[in-house]
Amino acid sequence: MKRAVIVGAGIAGLATALRLGRDGWRTVVVERAPARRSSGYLVNLLGPGYDAAEHLGLLPALSAHDLGLFTTVLVRADGRPKFTVPSAIAEAAIGKRAVSVFRGDLESILYEAVADRAEIRFGTTVHSIDQDTDGVRVVLSDGTTEHADLLVGADGVHSATRTAVFGSGFRVDLPYLVAAFPLARPAADVPPSSAATFIGPGRTAAIVNLGPNRSSAFFTYRCGDPTTELRRGPADALGAAFGDLGAGVPEAIRHLESDPTGAYFDAVSQVVMPRWSSGRAVLLGDAAWCVTLFAGHGAALALAGADQLGAALQRHADDIPTALAEWEAGLRPEAAKRQALARRGMLQYAPPSRFHVWMSDLTIRAITFPGIRGLVRRGIERANR
């Protein structure tokens, strides 16, 4: 039986453990955090991500948590609406093979699916990694040593595995911050089944009202010194950057002050590497190719990457380096495309000027026209093939 050590119990790590476990591998998943974490931002699974979820047998459980589509209301700073984008627009654009869930729900579903197939150790880190042509020796912080055929670094954009195996210098930090968190109670001044979205120079705020325990908030803004801003903490930082807005924003920030559980607050970075594997060690997910939340396909790429890695290892059962090289060659073009789309998407989420906001409004309004709607749908379909 082949053995794998997987670093990171997020979407990428758990999906890899699930796929390899089903293929007969013995997997050990080590996670720095002391327990399972949850976060409240929405993830969309479509294209290869939806295909991977289907192949991994996750769709029945995901369907029970599907948040569905909702109306988007573009608002002014004081909360007054500019115009509405009906949910039918999104449905026409992304098609039927798509599901939207909270990231925490996706991680929980993956955890439940893999719990009896993998050994998962929380509060555990990697102390050292040594490898040769025959295997990988991984010394862990709990005093144990694992001898494995494969090491998978799925420990996110700040990956310690990446640094240990490849060195530093692959993370590209961008002048933006992102915050997202669940809302136990929907915002009183945001209509049900809708998102109130403000887009202004250098910032975006969205409050999604899908009912109790199904609502969430999303913020992103341009920042000259993200490190200093992070030290302030999410509530203080968001209060300073968005405190002048209406449409549920003050209520969301007060919620964050009283209950920061599940909040995601971090600088925006991409990871750009010339290769994702070295010998029997491979990086997967944000550790290898972080596309940022601006791309909207991070979770989908993590699922697809895990599923495709398992397929490549099956095809080259006795030649892991060849399997890793083939897997990367197949997946890298998609990751590079999503990174490029994310860099362009930054102008949409944090427009540099009022003129850019005005142009964005015109573009979004145009999508509501029937003829343009069809062009958008076909464009998205091509992008997700």
Describe the structure.
With 385 residues, this protein is α/β, with parallel strands linked by helices. It has 2 domains: 3-67 and 101-172 and 270-348, 3-Layer(bba) Sandwich (FAD/NAD(P)-binding domain), CATH 3.50.50.60; 173-268 and 350-383, D-Amino Acid Oxidase, Chain A, domain 2. 41% of the residues lie in helices and 27% in strands. The protein is built from 14 helices and 18 strands. The chain has helices spanning 11-22, 48-55, 59-64, 87-94, 103-114, 160-166, 226-232, 234-242, 249-258, 286-289, 298-315, 320-349, 354-367, 370-383; strands spanning 3-7, 26-31, 42-46, 71-75, 81-85, 98-102, 118-122, 126-132, 135-140, 145-148, 150-153, 171-183, 194-200, 203-209, 215-222, 264-271, 277-278, 281-283. Strands 5-4-13-14-15-12-16 form a 7-stranded mixed sheet, with helices on both faces. A hairpin with a 2-residue loop joins strand 8 and strand 9 (135-140). The mean pLDDT is 89.
What descriptive keywords fit this protein?
6-stranded mixed sheet, about 375 residues, 18 strands, FAD/NAD(P)-binding domain, 7-stranded mixed sheet, alpha/beta, D-Amino Acid Oxidase, Chain A, domain 2
Summarize the helices and strands and which ones pair or pack:
Blueprint lengths: L2 E5 L3 H12 L3 E6 L10 E5 L1 H8 L3 H6 L6 E5 L5 E5 L1 H8 L3 E5 H12 L3 E5 L3 E7 L2 E6 L4 E4 L1 E4 L6 H7 L4 E13 L10 E7 L2 E7 L5 E8 L3 H7 L1 H9 L6 H10 L5 E8 L5 E2 L2 E3 L2 H4 L8 H18 L4 H30 L4 H14 L2 H14 L2
Parallel strand pairs: 1-2, 1-11, 2-7, 4-13, 11-18
Antiparallel strand pairs: 3-6, 4-5, 8-9, 9-10, 12-15, 12-16, 13-14, 14-15, 17-18
Helix pairs in contact: 1-5, 1-11, 2-11, 4-14, 8-9, 11-12
